[in-house]
Design a protein that fits this description.
Four copies of one chain form a homotetramer. By secondary structure, the first copy, chain A, is α/β, with parallel strands linked by helices. Chain A is built from nine helices and eleven strands.
Chain lengths: ~260, ~260, ~260, ~260
Amino acid sequence: MICEENIITVEVAGLIFGDGKAKFIAGPCAVESEEQIYNLAKELKKCGVDILRGGCFKPRTSPYSFQGLGEEGLHYLNEAGKFYGLPIISEFMSIEEVLKFHHLVDIIQIGSRNMYNYPLLRTLGEIDKPVMLKRGFSATYEEWHLASQYIISNGNKKVILAERGIRTFETGTRNTLDITAIPFMKCRTGLPIVCDPSHAVGLREFVEPLAFAALATGADGLMIEVHETPEKALSDGRQSIELKKFPELMDKFRDFQRR
Amino acid sequence: MICEENIITVEVAGLIFGDGKAKFIAGPCAVESEEQIYNLAKELKKCGVDILRGGCFKPRTSPYSFQGLGEEGLHYLNEAGKFYGLPIISEFMSIEEVLKFHHLVDIIQIGSRNMYNYPLLRTLGEIDKPVMLKRGFSATYEEWHLASQYIISNGNKKVILAERGIRTFETGTRNTLDITAIPFMKCRTGLPIVCDPSHAVGLREFVEPLAFAALATGADGLMIEVHETPEKALSDGRQSIELKKFPELMDKFRDFQRR
Amino acid sequence: MICEENIITVEVAGLIFGDGKAKFIAGPCAVESEEQIYNLAKELKKCGVDILRGGCFKPRTSPYSFQGLGEEGLHYLNEAGKFYGLPIISEFMSIEEVLKFHHLVDIIQIGSRNMYNYPLLRTLGEIDKPVMLKRGFSATYEEWHLASQYIISNGNKKVILAERGIRTFETGTRNTLDITAIPFMKCRTGLPIVCDPSHAVGLREFVEPLAFAALATGADGLMIEVHETPEKALSDGRQSIELKKFPELMDKFRDFQRR
Amino acid sequence: MICEENIITVEVAGLIFGDGKAKFIAGPCAVESEEQIYNLAKELKKCGVDILRGGCFKPRTSPYSFQGLGEEGLHYLNEAGKFYGLPIISEFMSIEEVLKFHHLVDIIQIGSRNMYNYPLLRTLGEIDKPVMLKRGFSATYEEWHLASQYIISNGNKKVILAERGIRTFETGTRNTLDITAIPFMKCRTGLPIVCDPSHAVGLREFVEPLAFAALATGADGLMIEVHETPEKALSDGRQSIELKKFPELMDKFRDFQRR
C-alpha cells in the first residue's frame, strides 16, 4: 500500500486487523431469535468467517420500527459465538449500553448515527475493548479522523474504521460506497479499515463486486450481511446475502485474496 | 401559512412558539465567562431578545478544541438569565447531562450531531421540558420528522424544530440554509420551527437577509449568535454578530414582522 | 442590501433589473399551442406580470419525452408577447438556436444543464441580447460566477443570474432552493439575480413562501410557472400555479414588495 | 459479472470494449506541444497502452485559464498516434467541433460538463464514430443512462460510458469515485464502461488503488493521466502520473488482470 510507514494493527480475539490479510465479518442485520443466530453461527463458522455480527440494539430511523431484541439478543449472540468459536461484534448506542454490556462482545460497533456522539466516544476511550467506528454517512475524512481521536486520545488505541457508504444525490442505491476512503484513511490515520458493502449499496447483487473492490484497495476486512431467508428478514432484507449462497462467495473472496 | 389546520403550539416560560409571532433567541456560541454572559444578557434583554442562548457542553469536531465551560458555564447562564429575566436555552449531549441539568434550563437544545441519537431522544420523551430539535446536517425531512417522534411518542409533546443548514457540495458558505424546510416541516409536522441563520451560513454579513427570508416563510423564531468581540470568540466568531450592532438588527426584525 | 457599491443593472425591453424593484416573469413550462400561450399572455398581462416565459426548445432528461414545439412554439410566444405588450424569455440550448432565433426573444434563458456549455456561453458573449444564466444544479458559486464571465469577457455585459435550486440528498422536494445564493451572488458579482421557486421546490403549494423568501433577501425578480390546467400540462404540472389562482398571488407579491 | 445476458461490445480501431479484458487509455490532460505528445506517445506505446488520450479543446471552469491548443493540438495528437500506431481519443465540446474534426479521432470523448448537452448528443447519434460519454459530475444513473439514449436512439450504437467521480460533500479529494457505477451501469445498460481514477480522486498517489478497484468490479477500461513532468503541467498536474513511473504501473495492472 501507499503509506506503509505508519501502519497500526489492532487485535480482536487473536485476529490481527492490519496484518495485510483481510478478515471476514458476517451475520444478520439483527439477531431475531436464538435459533436463528445459532444456525447462522454454525454455517458461517463452517465457511471460514472470522467474526460473527448481529444487531441487538438497533438504531432505527422510525421509533415504530423493530428496535432489536436488546439484551436478550445480545446473550444469544454471545452464546452462539462461544459455542461455535466465533468472536462477536454488536452495536451499542449509549454510554449505559457500553458500560453494562461491553464484556459480552469482542468488538464494539459504533454505527454511523453515533460517529458524532462525542460523550459516547469519550467513554469508549476509557474501556479496554476494540471499537469499530463506522463513518457517519455525511462525515468528511477529517471529521471521521477526529472522531477516532476522541477514543484514542482518551486512552483506547484499539480503533478500527469502517466505510459503509456516504449520502449523495444518487437514489439508485442505498448509499454511495466511497471506495477512496479505504486507501485514503489508511494512509492518513494508519488505522485498520474494513468495508461494509451491504449497507453501502443496499442491493445484494452488488455486494460481491464491491467487496472485491474493497479487497483490491487494501481493506483490512469485510463486513457482510447474511440471512437465512432475506425476504423474511425483520430489517435490511434487500441487502442481505442468502445463507446458502454465502459459502461460494467466501470461496471467491479467498481466491481473490490469494492472488 | 399553507397548512393551518394542524398547528401545534409549544410554551416556553410563558412564550408561545407557533402563535404566529416569531420569537428571538440570541447569545454567544459558548459561555466563556461569568462576566461575558451577564453583560450579554443585560444588553440582549434591553433590545428585546426573548430567550438567551449559550453553549456550555460543546460538541466540537476535534477533541483538542475548546469543549465549553460545562457545568460551571451552565450555572453562569442560568443565573444571568434569572437576573435579567430571560429564559435560557443550552445544548445537552448525553442522557446523563439531560437528567442532571434539565432543571437549569427553560428549553433543551439538541444539536445536529445528536438528531440520530435515539437513546437520548427517548430520554427527552420522558421528561417535562421543551426541546429544540435541530436538524442533522444531512437529515432528510422524513428522518427529522421521525426523530421528533422518538421524543413525542415517549410522552413529551413540547418539541420545536430548528433548521440550521444542511451539508451540500457548496463550499462558499459553512452550510446551505434549506429555507424550504420551514414551510415544509411546519406543514408536515405542525410543530413550531425556528431558523438558525448563523450556523447555516457561517458568515455574519449574510445573517440579516437569511433571517428576513426565514420570517418571510413563517418561521416561529430566529436563533442568532451574538458576541461582544467576535474576533476574540473561542468558537464560531466568523458568524457572530457584534453585540453593539445587534440592537439595530433587532429593530429591523421587528419592523419586518410588523409589516 | 449588503454590498451596495458594485450594483450592475441590466435593461430588458425597458425594464431595469437591479433597480431595487423585483420584476415578475411568468408563464407555462412549455408553449403547448397557439391558443394556450395567447390566453396565458392575456391573463398574465392583466395581473401585472412583466415578462412572459415559455419553453420551446426543451432540455428533457429523456429523449422519449415531449421535447417542446421548437421554432413553431417560439413564433407563437413571440406573437402573443407582441400582441399583449409583454417582453418574452425562452431557452436556447445550442449555438445554432441562439444565432438563428435570438432576435425573436427579449431575453435568452440558458438552463441549468448548459451552465457549463462554454462554447455556447462564448457565443452569447458575441451577441447583443440580455441573457438569464441559470445556475447548474450542482454548480458552486465560483463556477457560476466564472460561467457568467465566459459571457461578459466576450463582450456581452447584460447577464442576469437565476437561482433555481440545487441538487442535494433531500428527496422530499425536486431540488433544494439555495436562498443564500441570492444575497451571496449579488454581493460577489454585482449582477441582478432572479429566483425560480417553481423548479426549486417542484411542488406548487410551496412556491408562495419561497417567493416571499426570495423577495426578502433582495431578489431582483421572480420566475413562476403558471398553467391553465396544471394537471394536464405536458411537463412540470406538479409545480405550476393554476392560472385562475395567480392574480391573488401577484397581489400578495406586490403587497410584500410595498412594505 | 452480474448481468451477463445483455453485454454490448463496442469496437474502437480493432479493440473490443466489453470483451472481458480491460483496455488502457493514457496520456496528458492537455496536448501542450508537438514534442510533448510525440514523446508521450512513444513511451506509452512501449509500455502497452492501447489508446492515447490528449485534450485539445478544454472545458475550463474559468475563461481566463489555458483553454487547450485547439485544432493545432488535435493535429499533433492525430499524427503522433499514427506515427506510433496508437488510436486516439480527444474531447469535443460543440456540434461544430464534432462535425469538423471527428474524422481526426478514433473515439470522441464527451466530458462531464456536456452530458446534459442534448443537441450535442443528438449530433453524435448521427455520425459513425465511437463515443465515450463521461458521467455528469452530479448525474444520477438514470440521467446518464438516458443521456446515452440520446445518442443511441439517434442511430449511433457505439457508446462507452466513463465513470469519473461525482460531486459530494467530501473535500479531501477532487471528486468521489462512485465505484458502484461500474457494475451498476454495466448491468443496467449493457454498455462497456471505463473508469477515470485520475479525475475522480485528483491526487496521483491514489490512482493505483482506485484503478485496481475498477478492474476488480469489471471495468472495461482505465483512463489515466500521464505527464512527463507533472509539476509543470498546464492543467491537472496534481493528479497526473509521472511518465517514468508509468511502465511499472502498467505492469501491475496487467498482473492484476491476469490473476
